[in-house]
Amino acid sequence: MDSLGGWLNEIRYFYMRQLSVPLSPHGQALWHWLMWRANTVFWQFPLRLSVPEIAGGTKMSESMVKKARAELVAGGYLLHEAFGGSRPAGYWILSCIKPGAVMSPKLKLNNEDGNKGKVLNLRR
After folding, report:
1. pTM of the prediction?
2. What is residue 116's predicted lDDT score, i.e. its pLDDT?
3. N or C: which end of the chain has fewer CB within 10 A?
4. What's the whole-number average pLDDT of the chain?
5. CB-based contacts of 79, cutoff 8 Å, min separation 6
6. 12 is in which domain, residue-wise?
7. CATH number at residue 13
8. What distance in Å separates the CA atoms of residue 103 and residue 10, rounded to the nearest whole number?
């Protein structure tokens, strides 16, 4: 997944973090579902998901998805960007191991600046 510690360690730290920044059961369910979705697309962010798609996947109402999403954003578990209209929103899961860091794979790039093989984080 990424250099921060892997999927299972993120889940372990997620539950440790619940002691200081607790989430509702809906917030926890949404976080786990987003982790599962990120894993299915090999941790390529942003995850582009519509609210109806999330509601169908989590078996929550659309209003409950929005409340759970707001809770995750407020708690520092998630970044969310609305792209307007009927376009799906973008989601970045924040690490529980290193709070505030976006979970993302690392790439080695050759660029024109001569930084051959420099490791860069894929962040927005």
Report:
1. 0.79
2. 41
3. C
4. 83
5. 73, 91, 92, 94, 102
6. 7-121
7. 1.10.10.10
8. 10
